[in-house]
Amino acid sequence: MHLVELTVIIPTFNRSKIVNKTLQKAIEILQQVNIVFEIIVVNDGSEEVDFHHNQLILVKNKKKGVASARNFGASISKYPNLLFLDDDILITYESTEKIIHFFCSSLAETHCLNVAWIYPPELIVKCEKTNFGRYLKSIDYISMKGWMNPQTWKEQSFYEIDTLASYCLAITKKNFNRIGGYNEHFPYSGFEDYEFAQRALIAKIKTLLDTSIFVFHNEEDRLDVEDWMNRRYREGVTRACYIKLTNDIKYEINPNYIKKTLYHIIYVFKRMIIWKVRLFDFKVFDFITFPIIKILTGSFIWKGYINEYYKKD
Q: For the segment 200-236, what is each residue's pLDDT rounded down to a tens digit?
């Protein structure tokens, strides 16, 4: 097995406390394995990243958005293997070993690699303390499994999938450049991954997913219902961006008139409704607050979608 040379690329936006924990864990683990590495943090926000290490490079994004941040990090990387990490991903020794073995194998010539994610144990415990956290647990959004189509999830497996996610993506720099990098027309994270995956398939680069190994998704600063809704709004924006760029109508959002009206009313009174959700933060009221959170989510996605879809470019 040859010595792997790896560039870790972490885009971040105003999450200095979280990214510091990510960096601390990354350096701790990477120093335990026999590789040559550098870590590039691309700061896309106004908060300064106060972390120092001789193998850490801190740079400001020359543009805006997570897609351009990742592309910029890749453009200044000096090693042939890339690991894209979100700023809230805590790698583990096992996941890092898997990534190293991947880069040492012939699979890296024709594939990229995702490993599964799950919330850290202490964060799962924290979820029990709020109705919103309990809601996330009830729909299994505390793990990658809950976010995926059940038909595409295989327990304890290592297999090919048709899409990818950049929270923890291992790919050679050669293949990244073959795909053409991320599409910088996407202002936020979301559908930029799906669009990147489609071009990867065209370039005959497939994605492998390992569900027997996990990294930890440290969203400790995002267990708030309003923050969640704002991110769902941005999800709607990126969905609309994807459709406008690709004309892929299967991802259009077109609710019936009644649902549109309901979404509109809920969005108009969103602040009052979110306040009510917080007010009734007792387990006995979960049967009321869970459906409210669900329909709030739909209204924010829809609003972000239509605002972007009908925006004049």
A: 999 999 999 999 999 999 999 999 999 999 999 999 9
- Contact partners, residue 155, CB within 8 Å, separation at least 6: 211
Q: Looking at the DSSP assignment, which residues form a beta bridge with residue 8?
A: 39, 83
In this structure, which amino acid lies at residue 281? D
Distant-in-sequence contacts of 50-57, Cβ < 8 A, 24+ apart = 50/16, 50/20, 51/19, 51/20, 51/23, 51/24, 53/23, 53/27, 55/27, 56/23, 56/27
Say yes or no: domain 4-217 is CATH 3.40.50.620: no
HSE-CB at 200 with a 13 A cutoff on CA atoms is: 31
Structural domain spans, the chain: 4-217, 225-309
- Alpha helices (runs of H) in the chain, residue ranges in sequence order: 16-30, 66-75, 93-104, 121-127, 131-138, 144-147, 173-179, 191-202, 225-246, 257-268, 270-279, 286-309
pTM of the model as a whole: 0.95
Contact 59, 41 (CB under 8 A): yes
d(CA 288, CA 278): 12
Those residues whose C-beta lies under 8 Å from the C-beta of residue 282, and which sit 6 or more positions away, are: 131
SS3 call for 153: coil
Q: Note whether 115 and 210 are within 8 A (CB).
A: yes
Write out pLDDT tens, residues 84-135.
999 999 999 999 999 999 999 999 999 999 999 999 999 999 999 999 999 9
